[in-house]
Write a structure and sequence with these properties.
CATH architecture of the largest domain: 3-Layer(aba) Sandwich
Number of strands: 9
Number of domains: 2
Largest sheet: 7 strands, mixed
CATH topology of the largest domain: Rossmann fold
CATH superfamily of the largest domain: NAD(P)-binding Rossmann-like Domain
Helix content: 40-55%
Number of helices: 8
Strand order of the largest sheet: 5-6-4-3-7-8-9
Strand content: 15-25%
Distance between the termini: 50 Å
Structural class: alpha/beta
Order of helices and strands: HEHHEHEHEEEHEHEEH
Shape: globular
Length: about 220
């Protein structure tokens, strides 16, 4: 992937993948950028620009082969490879993530869960035993770990992230309510749940204000 591809474009790629899957399930064999535009509320020109970052894939007068484009975007997203994830934090969120099969459908496999609570050791989540944090280094040395998921309190997140970076992990999915400081060669995807619901609240307030203006209130 070229380094100059914007995060905005990268953010849209999973949406393309998801909508193309929907079209495949509907039996659609080809689709134009205009048709994708109607489905996704993204302009047709923007769709073409996004896909041209990775090679284009379309044919003038034909559009896109749905199955082929779905496969190509899957490769761009790395879904043609398996990815092993470990979860740090065996609380409610960690258990919920380990229990779902949503990730394995896309070749992301949660292989281990770690927690500093000794009482949780050996507890099974979806056939995955919870291990203690003192087992982390040995586990990493003996197993392939591509990504780490942090579902721990904010006050411990940076310390754990530093430990993961020292081990050699290059990708962290961070659910802790804090922004992590990591080296440039480590990728972090932050998921701040409270931020999301606050954005939802703000959008709701703004929408209500607009409706009131339109209604002359």
């Amino acid at each position: 992937m070229r380094k100059d591809i914007s995060q905005v474009v990268i953010k849209r790629m999973p949406r393309y993948y998801r909508y193309l899957r929907y079209l495949m399930d509907e039996g659609k064999e080809r689709v134009s950028s205009a048709e994708l535009s109607e489905l996704m509320s993204v302009t047709a020109s923007q769709i073409r620009q996004d896909l041209n970052n990775f090679g284009g894939f379309g044919q003038q007068g034909y559009g896109y082969n749905v199955k082929k484009l779905h496969e190509e975007i899957g490769k761009i997203l790395g879904l043609d490879k398996t990815h092993n994830l470990i979860i740090i934090g065996g609380g409610n969120l960690g258990k919920a993530l380990a229990s779902t099969d949503a990730f394995s459908k896309h070749n992301f496999y949660i292989t281990a869960v770690f927690d500093n609570n000794e009482k949780l050791k050996g507890t099974m989540i979806n056939d995955i035993p919870i291990r203690t944090m003192d087992e982390l280094d040995d586990y990493y040395a003996k197993n392939r770990v591509d990504m780490a998921v942090l579902t721990i309190p904010a006050e411990h997140a940076q310390e754990v992230a530093d430990r993961l970076v020292k081990l050699g992990i290059k990708a962290i999915w961070n659910f802790a309510q804090v922004d992590l400081e990591v080296p440039d060669d480590v990728v972090v995807q932050n998921v701040h749940l409270a931020d999301s619901v606050m954005r939802l609240s703000l959008n709701m307030i703004q929408r209500e204000k607009q409706v009131n203006i339109e209604n002359g209130k």
